């Protein structure tokens, strides 16, 4: 049972590390959107284009949800 306990502990540590990393990346993305500057992202052709207001709102909402779930 010690082996199982060690495996569970390692899995929980790995999950906590991933959650902390997700939190940090979400906070960085939120900070970028909070600047109000135009944000570019690749379109379906791989070309870099500026986000429109709807895309930006969707990304801000997604970022807020990531912060809520990971921080």
Task: Provide an overview of this structure.
The longest helix is centred in the first third of the chain and has 33 residues. The protein is mainly α and 71 residues long. The two termini are 32 Å apart. The chain contains two helices and two strands, in the order H-E-E-H. It has a two-stranded antiparallel sheet. The model has no long low-confidence stretch (mean pLDDT 93). The protein is elongated, with a radius of gyration of 17 Å. Helix 1 runs antiparallel to helix 2. A hairpin with a 5-residue loop joins strand 1 and strand 2.
List its traits.
2 helices; 71 residues; elongated; single chain; two-stranded antiparallel sheet; mainly alpha
Give a quick summary of the entry.
With 71 residues, the protein is mostly helical. It has 2 helices and 2 strands, in the order H-E-E-H. Helices cover 72% and strands 8% of the residues.
State the end-to-end distance. Answer: 32 Å
Q: Quaternary state, please?
A: single chain
Rg over CA atoms, rounded to whole Å, is 17 Å
Structural class: mainly alpha
**Which word captures the global form?**
elongated
Low-confidence stretches: none
Overall mean pLDDT: 93
**What is the helix fraction of residues, given as a range?**
over 70%
In N-to-C order, the SSE pattern is HEEH
Instruction: Count helical runs.
Output: 2
Query: Could you tell me the strand content as a percent range?
Result: 5-15%
Largest sheet: number of strands, sense, barrel closure? 2 strands, antiparallel
Question: What topology, given as strand order, has the largest sheet?
Answer: 1-2
How many beta-strand segments? 2
């Amino acid at each position: 049972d010690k082996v199982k306990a060690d495996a569970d502990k390692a899995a929980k540590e790995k999950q906590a590390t991933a959650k902390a990393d997700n939190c940090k990346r979400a906070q960085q993305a939120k900070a970028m959107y909070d600047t109000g500057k135009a944000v570019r992202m690749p379109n379906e052709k791989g070309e870099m284009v500026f986000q429109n207001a709807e895309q930006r709102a969707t990304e801000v909402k997604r970022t807020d949800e990531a912060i809520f779930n990971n921080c």
